[in-house]
Amino acid sequence: MRRPALHAAKLLSLGLLPLSLPACAAGSVGTLAGRTIDTPSAHVVSIYSLGLELRIRSEDAGFSFGFRHSVYLYPKLKTVSADTPHFFFVAAEARPPLKVISQTIGLELGATPTFSGLELGYAERAVSSVPVHESRTSVIHYESAHFENTKAELVQLR
């Protein structure tokens, strides 16, 4: 005699098994998905992580456990790249970003000059950074739903 409810429960538990396995990322390698997008004036790096993520860049140092979406905005360089999806590895820029925008659902431990602390739940943050030895003005236009409309201009002051 077949038991359809038991069979369905077994299938459901097998389907949920991958969600219970640990996931982690360190730096720009691990359980990540992302995109790099070039607009006429900006380079946008968007990264999604799930599980434990350890961030080692000084502008966004810390770790999170849960879901995190980070966007790094850079002024455009002369090189042009296409809108590129990435899985398990997202290339990080060597230069500091103009702005870091992040959303975390879960546990967040920040270790940056602008945020050092622990948060649990939903956290959203947008931080612009300027090196101490520089005087500059940044003009940034960012739309979270339309990365292609992002604009970033950097003006050095004398």
Describe the structure.
This protein is mostly beta strands and 158 residues long. The protein has one domain (31-156). It is 11% helix and 54% strand. It has one helix spanning 4-20, and strands at residues 24-26, 29-38, 42-55, 62-75, 84-89, 99-111, 116-128, 136-141, 151-156. The strands form two sheets. Strands 1, 2, 3, 4, 5, 6 and 7 form a seven-stranded mixed β-sheet that branches. A two-stranded antiparallel ribbon has the order 8-9.
Count of separate structural domains: 1
- Percent of residues in helices: 10-25%
- Using DSSP, what is the number of strands? 9
Count of individual helical segments? 1
Q: Could you report the average pLDDT, rounded to the nearest whole number?
A: 75
| Beta-strand content | over 45%
Order of helices and strands: HEEEEEEEEE
* Helix and strand composition category: mainly beta
The dominant shape is globular
